[in-house]
């Protein structure tokens, strides 16, 4: 399942992490990792303030030097092992 992520700030954000978390209160989100490749980025998040966590992978794009969330979905078979390991260290029990 792929979810469209609404751009909550049309002017964008300074970092892909800020763009991916824009609509989530800070206390409910933990950034597990980020991978930037040119003008695209993937940010892996855990949401909720304690276990059980919900996992999300958010794809971001940079436009005119500002980052915007593009799409989001749960962790999947392409999620890097180091992201999964870090999420488990934080208390995530998925996959």
Show the helix and strand layout.
Elements: E1 3-4, H1 16-21, E2 29-37, E3 40-47, E4 54-63, E5 66-73, H2 81-89
Antiparallel strand pairs: 1-5, 2-3, 3-4, 4-5
Describe the protein.
With 95 residues, the chain is α+β, with helices and mostly antiparallel strands. The chain has a single domain (3-77, 85-89), classed as Nuclear Transport Factor 2, Chain: A. It is built from two helices and five strands; from the N terminus they run E-H-E-E-E-E-H. Strands 1-5-4-3-2 form a five-stranded antiparallel beta sheet. The longest helix has 9 residues, at 81-89. It is globular and about 40 Å long. It starts with a strand and ends in a 6-residue tail after the last helix. The model is unreliable at 1-7 (pLDDT under 50).
Task: Label this structure with key terms.
Nuclear Transport Factor 2, Chain: A, disordered N terminus, globular, 95 residues, 5-stranded antiparallel sheet, single chain, 5 strands, alpha+beta
């Amino acid at each position: 399942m792929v979810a469209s992520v609404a751009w909550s700030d049309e002017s964008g954000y300074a970092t892909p992490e800020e763009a991916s978390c824009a609509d989530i209160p800070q206390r409910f989100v933990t950034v597990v990792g980020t991978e930037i490749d040119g003008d695209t980025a993937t940010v892996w998040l855990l949401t909720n303030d304690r276990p059980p966590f919900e996992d999300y992978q958010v794809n971001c794009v940079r436009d005119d030097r500002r980052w915007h969330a593009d799409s989001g979905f749960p962790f999947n078979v392409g999620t890097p092992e180091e992201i999964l390991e870090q999420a488990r260290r934080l208390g995530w029990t998925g996959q």
